[in-house]
Automatic annotation (TrEMBL):
Matching PANTHER family: G-PROTEIN COUPLED RECEPTOR, PYROKININ-1 RECEPTOR
Membrane topology term: Multi-pass membrane protein
Alphabetized Pfam families for the sequence: 7tm_1
Location(s) in or outside the cell: Membrane
Coiled coil spans: none
Residues spanning the membrane: 29-53, 65-83, 197-215, 242-262, 282-302
Keywords: G-protein coupled receptor, Membrane, Receptor, Transducer, Transmembrane, Transmembrane helix
Organism: Hypsibius exemplaris (Freshwater tardigrade)
Source domain of life: Eukaryota
GO MF: G protein-coupled receptor activity
Cellular component terms (Gene Ontology): membrane
SUPFAM superfamilies given in the database record: Family A G protein-coupled receptor-like (SSF81321)
Protein name: G-protein coupled receptors family 1 profile domain-containing protein
């Protein structure tokens, strides 16, 4: 990375002006990661938009369980539209945020929060299954608004931990020509507390509770239910919800666990972590595409509505002359 005198003015603690943008200054691995990241983000944006359109077209599909899917789609779409464009550009032009404390703070804040918010939403899906097992009578009467409220509370919980770190970093943080915006130097002990409360504990609870949850669900399935109490529609719905929950658990474990390790290395300021973090961040972005696919696999109502909407879109693209041609 080269700097010319005419472009950079130094003060005692930071850069006061940087007015350059050097193309191709990142390593080849960063370029490869960026090119691979683009299709996942684009497909993920389209897929999550289609999920949102599906719920808007058919509000009856919004249930006390699927509200968490809707919330997760909104979170993924927001992350993809707000953070991903800048993240991709920054992989091509590593200097884009050097010397700009506000922009650098935005990069770090997004890296802190985007994965964490998704992690908490997956935790809420697990929490919802526990409620269904432990409080079945109450769960059947649970309103959809409950899912909205707990998601908002989870977002508030997450921001309460990270906003103070953002403020202190903006006030006390130092930006230099060698500063990587992925590293946060202020409040190292508080950072460990934040990671523990928003990353390590939720992740441990999420994966640690699933074996017991799965055991309890299987145990309940062996109970003999009188024929007059059987509800085939409700049984099918429970099966779909369980499959959806376990599917999300599996893909989350595969695609998110790597970035947890590199995030820990990054927090320890490991000199080898930067490029590995970029690769694991790319791996986690595959969820933008896989999660909507799981919605279609396990939730028949969503799948049928998406098919119906896509057929309508396809029919709009066919001209009357093409439609009149014999097959």
């Amino acid at each position: 990375m080269s700097f010319t005198k005419s472009h950079v003015n130094f003060s005692d603690t930071n850069i006061t002006r940087v007015s350059f943008l050097q193309p191709n200054s990142a390593s080849p691995l960063f370029h490869i990661v960026s090119y691979l990241r683009i299709p996942f983000v684009l497909i993920g944006v389209l897929a999550n938009i289609e999920i949102l359109i599906t719920f808007i077209r058919r509000p009856r599909l919004i249930t006390p369980f699927t509200i968490y899917i809707l919330n997760l789609a909104i979170i993924n779409l927001s992350s993809a539209l707000v953070y991903e464009p800048f993240a991709i550009v920054r992989y091509f032009y590593r200097e884009v945020s050097i010397g700009n404390k506000a922009l650098c703070g935005f990069v770090k804040y997004c890296q802190w929060t985007t994965d964490g918010i998704t992690r908490l939403q997956h935790g809420l899906i697990c929490f919802d299954r526990w409620l269904a097992v432990l409080l079945p009578t109450w769960y059947r009467l649970k309103p959809v608004s409950f899912g909205v409220k707990v998601t908002l509370l989870a977002l508030l919980y997450h921001q309460i931990w990270y906003i103070p770190l953002l403020i202190v970093d903006q006030v006390q943080g130092v930006v230099t020509p060698t500063t990587d915006c992925g590293f946060t130097l202020v409040l190292p002990q508080y950072q460990m507390v934040v990671r523990t409360m928003t990353m390590y504990i939720p992740f441990t609870v999420l994966f640690g509770s699933y074996p017991l949850l799965f055991y309890k669900i299987l145990k309940r399935r062996h109970l003999v239910i009188p024929e007059n109490q059987l509800n085939p529609a409700r049984t099918k719905q429970r099966s779909q919800e369980l499959g959806m929950t376990m599917g999300l658990l599996l893909i989350y474990f595969i695609f998110v666990l790597p970035i947890l390790f590199t995030s820990a290395l990054k927090a320890a300021k490991s000199p080898i972590v930067n490029e590995y973090f970029a690769v694991t961040e790319l791996i986690s972005r595959v969820l933008y595409v896989i999660e909507p696919y799981l919605y279609l696999v396990f939730m028949s109502g969503i799948r049928e509505e998406v098919k119906r909407h896509l057929r309508q879109l396809a029919s709009c693209c066919v001209t009357p002359r093409q439609a009149a041609q014999p097959i």
